[in-house]
Each structure stands twice: as structure tokens, then as C-alpha cells.
């Protein structure tokens, strides 16, 4: 049985809720990633900020990324998966919530993140097709 920690991209990094979006963008560039999980003061997942969020919800609205924080962009209930969850649970979570990035948690700590690229490397063509249909085509 394949589990989440076997297909995840290891070494994901948190940012704090109070990190400004210009700082988040610089870190994304440095890490060569398009999303960063956001943690609260207790180091609990409270959301994810993407490069698209920064552009669409901050820059395009003429907000200042030097003063706008990650907390201001976090919306909804954050989704995550346990490191030992099987791949079917991973797909279920991502498909049902139509998400493209899923933080992986072990012992209440972030250990990685599963992205579409990770799925493409580890799943069958049929599983990938089902994921794409559920996340992109479903209304």
C-alpha cells in the first residue's frame, strides 16, 4: 500500500500568519515553489498562500504586498492529510475538495506537501485521469 509520505514532496516549509506577502513571494522564489502552508501561533495549519493568491487577491486589488499578510489571504478550512494515509485517501481528499496541493502532517508537524506533479509521478494513468476530471472538469 502506497502512503502519503511516499509520494509527497518532502521538506515543505511553513510561514507564519503575520508574514507579509512580499516576504512570502521572495521565499517562494528562493524555494522554487508556488505555494506555502501558513501556520498560526501554535504552529497549526491555518491555510495555504499561493503565488496566484498574491497576484489576484493582493496585487490586482492594488493592495500593498509589503503590508498585506498571509493571514489576510487564508480562506476556508485548511485541508491536510496524515503521512500514513493511503493514496486512495489522498485522492479522495484532493478530489472532494478540488485542491491541487495537500500538506502532509506527521506527529502534528508539517513533513511535506503533495502536488499534482507528485501525483503524476506515482499514480496510474487512470488515477490521474480521474483526479483531473474531479478537480478540473466537475462543476
UniProtKB/TrEMBL annotation:
It comes from the Bacteria. SUPFAM superfamilies: CBS-domain pair. SMART domains: CBS. The keyword Cell division does not apply. Keywords: CBS domain. Residues 8-65, 73-130 form the CBS domain. This is CBS domain-containing protein.
